[in-house]
Design goal:
313 residues, alpha/beta, globular, binds adenosine-2'-5'-diphosphate
Length: 313
């Protein structure tokens, strides 16, 4: 898995194909999509264009997608993947993740993306959890590998206890855990546990608050990019604060998947392999940790989806 990927969450459908095309031209080979992002068809169109233009071959790309919460029942796992493959115009994925440890009542495939509400048109729309153990979903994920439809499987938004449980029964081991990770949420023990277990870690929102201002989930003082320590280190290396955070993520052994639609930022976010952070710089950045999680179902599900739904506590 290439250490830097393009995160596709919140990339508008109208911009997704062009952004994917630009990213490939600039050297990106890792794309992080999801059923829930609602832009898989446009992402697929971008991928089709680069593959048909010959800039790169399918085997040069590393494409991830994610099983949405409404498809945890084993019978729905393969049809959900097939929907993603069809939209992405691919015949296999490099990585398929269980998006959240949250099983919600099935929503038919004609609603795309299904979102969090079972019935958004009801007078009091809510999330409708169902009783599906992750082990049942994992068995169906393993079958996708056996069927040759996905090369690797993994999970997202899991903590150590869920990982430990999964590792206790998995016949095909999770290749990757993807979680929110940046200098304000370093999760050192989770990173170390995964390293010891041979599970690669991908950091989403590696720039921290940046993605969350526009959706009201971050505010004043939440920006790691504006931290004096980060700015000083950036100035010392002649790099931007964003490049320092991404380099820190890669240097601690995680993959990072920053999102941008702007060409200059796409380039900037990939140019992190021509400098190295010193040990004291690594620890100064890691020392900014304040366990600040921006993407927390325990907060946003109640605010946005009328349903109190903590998962990390
Ligand atoms: P934009 O898409 O307008 O470039 P993350 O992937 O950590 O969630 O961060 C994504 C957010 O950070 C987006 O709002 C994106 O805005 C912004 N962003 C991406 N790259 C950079 C960069 N190099 N410097 C500053 N902000 C960036």
């Amino acid at each position: 898995m290439p250490a830097v990927g393009l995160g596709l969450w919140k990339i508008e459908r109208a911009k997704a194909a062009e952004t994917v095309g630009n990213a490939v031209k600039f050297g990106y080979r890792h794309f992080d999509s999801a059923y829930d992002y609602g832009n898989e068809a446009e992402t697929g169109e971008g991928l089709r264009q680069v593959l048909s233009s010959g800039i790169c071959k399918r085997e040069d790309l590393f494409v991830t997608s994610k099983l949405w919460n409404t498809y945890h029942e084993p019978a729905h796992v393969r049809p959900a993947l097939e929907q993603s493959l069809k939209r992405l115009q691919l015949d296999y994925l490099d990585l398929y993740l269980i998006h959240f440890p949250i099983a919600l009542k099935f929503v038919t495939f004609d609603r795309y993306p299904p979102g969090w509400f079972y019935d958004p048109n009801s007078p009091n729309p809510r999330m409708e959890p169902i009783r599906v153990p992750i082990s049942d979903t994992w068995r169906a994920m393993e079958d996708l590998v056996r069927a040759g439809l996905v090369r690797n499987i993994g999970v997202s938004n899991f903590g150590v206890s869920l990982m430990r449980d999964l590792l206790s029964y998995a016949e095909i081991l999770p290749a990757v855990l993807q979680v929110e990770m940046h200098p304000f949420l370093t999760q050192d023990k989770l990173v170390r546990f995964c390293r010891e277990q041979g599970v690669a870690v991908t950091a989403f929102s590696p720039l921290g608050a940046a993605s969350y201002y526009s959706i009201g989930m971050a505010g004043e003082g939440d920006s790691a990019l504006e931290q004096p320590a980060v700015q000083e280190i950036a100035a010392r290396h002649g790099k931007s604060p964003a490049q320092v955070l991404l380099r820190w993520g890669v240097q601690r052994g995680t993959a990072v998947i920053p999102k941008s639609t702007r060409a200059e930022r796409l380039r900037e976010n990939l140019e992190i392999f021509d400098f190295e952070l010193a040990a004291n710089e690594m620890s100064a950045i890691g020392g900014l940790n304040r366990n600040r999680r921006f993407n927390d179902p325990g907060v946003f599900c109640e605010k946005a989806f009328n349903t109190f739904f903590p998962i990390y506590e």
